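Protocol step 4 of 6: structure prediction from sequence.
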Amino acid sequence: MRDTLVLNASFEPLSTVSLNRAVVLVLQDKAVVEQAHPELRMRGAEVDIPVPRVIRLCRYVRVPFRRQAPWSRRGVLVRDRHRCAYCGRRATTVDHVVPRAQGGQDSWLNTVASCAEDNHRKAARTPEQAGMPLLRQPFEPTPADAMLLALGTDDFDALPEWLVQPAA
């Protein structure tokens, strides 16, 4: 499970890593803890450190620029926070706004999270044809937004204000 956000030395989000990997980076003095889970600590014979939620690398890592986050079914569910775009209940599937049968593509702007019931009810129709208006319009997250959203709703809300920018 990837539950620790890694920031570059310039405070830009780079990736998410497992808790074990984050602790190793801190212990090797390759990163510092920027934000820790409240009241949780990792203890060993010689070590006592806070459980990291956000770490920052000590040295800048040059990363190739990516203009857009790659589309994935999991990414759509995370972007929409596992909430159905039609009724607001828990979403388990991805629905195409313009169905594939009508030429719709797998893209950020053409897919939304949906519960199985609404996905089946809408079938191969557009929301207008099915009489099912969208509660939220789909948007294309930046790579940094996609990374922050991947941390999960609870962690996302607990991140420092200087790191979180409002989503579109």
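Step 5 (inspection) to follow. The beta strands are 4-7, 13-17, 31-43, 48-57, 93-96, 111-114.
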